[in-house]
Write a structure and sequence with these properties.
Layout (H helix, E strand, L loop, with lengths): L2 H12 L4 H22 L2 H4 L4 H16 L3 H21 L1
């Protein structure tokens, strides 16, 4: 395949507005952003990129959010997250 043809196909793919393509693109973007949050939090380095540990941390967080302390945990985590975002912006 020539480079020009490859560029043309790539452009068509970017401009594809079929519903399932748009939804897939949105989901892909969401997953990339969530992965970025895991990296920004330092969890990749702190766990030596151990996916089982990362998944376990998320399972614990989900269990907390299902429990009686849900509202308190969300409030605390939201405050911490906002402060961390502000610090990142100020760096």
């Amino acid at each position: 395949m020539t480079a020009a043809r490859h560029r043309l196909e790539a452009q068509r793919a970017r401009n594809d507005t079929r519903d399932w393509v748009v939804k897939r693109r949105e989901r892909t973007r969401q997953l990339i952003e969530l992965g970025g949050l895991v990296a920004k939090a330092g969890l990749v380095e702190l766990t030596d990129d151990d996916r089982a540990v990362l998944f376990g941390v998320m399972i614990d967080a989900a269990a907390t959010l299902k429990g009686e302390q849900r509202d308190q945990a969300r409030t605390l985590w939201r405050r911490r997250g906002r402060r961390a975002f502000e610090q990142l912006q100020n760096e």
